[in-house]
Design brief:
The chain is 56% helix and 4% strand. The protein is mostly helical and 198 residues long.
């Protein structure tokens, strides 16, 4: 289906963007396999692996997959100032270095619903449940992930697992000809824009 093909191309370029950002931050990356032609399908498979992995290693910390998606979208939106700042990204880039609340930005439920392309009532219900269970807290005109949740043993362990898993997935891209020396050569349609959460 054309829509699915478009989704896979987008997923591919988001994966390349992550690797490009890691490279710019000085994260050690695997070596190139200079004798291999680049296979975009290997990158798509790696991206799908990374997208699905959280459902395996943090699902037990959530009542449902939908709560997981909502809570982690809130956490991602809250960290947008940090994500775009190289110094802050390095400072708070480890599993056990959750950024302080004053550096995080709340996201409104209406914006959250629009970003996730879900109904407002569904997202509000999940947010209220997550607030009641201590994963989210109300802040200003929106919500934030709580310090207790971000620093909980389950999330810290999941972050460590995610880091190790990501390193393993990146190593698998070498034989697929990924250009770790210059990831920009691997884009199909170009670097995707950051979500703005507006």
């Amino acid at each position: 289906l054309p829509a699915f093909a478009t989704l896979l191309r987008s997923l591919h370029d988001h994966m390349v963007s992550v690797i490009e950002d890691l490279s710019q931050m000085g994260v050690p990356l695997p070596p190139n396999h200079v004798d291999r032609f680049y296979d975009p399908n290997a990158t798509i498979a790696a991206a799908i692996d990374l997208v699905l992995a959280p459902f395996d290693y943090i699902r037990d910390a959530h009542a449902s997959w939908l709560e997981l998606v909502v809570v982690h979208t809130v956490a991602t939106a809250g960290a947008r100032k940090i994500t775009r700042d190289p110094e802050l990204s390095r400072r708070y880039g480890e599993a056990d270095t959750a950024p302080p609340e004053d550096l995080r930005e709340p996201i409104a439920i209406t914006v959250l619903a629009r970003t996730l392309r879900m109904s407002y009532s569904t997202v509000r219900r999940e947010v209220e449940s997550a607030v009641a269970s201590g994963k989210l807290t109300r802040a200003g005109h929106g919500v934030l992930a709580t310090d207790a949740y971000l620093r909980s043993a389950a999330i810290v362990q999941a972050g460590a697992r995610a880091t190790a898993h990501c390193a393993h997935v990146l190593r698998r891209l070498g034989p697929g000809g990924f250009r770790f020396d210059n990831p920009t050569h691997c884009y199909l349609d170009g670097k995707p824009a950051f979500l703005t959460f507006d």
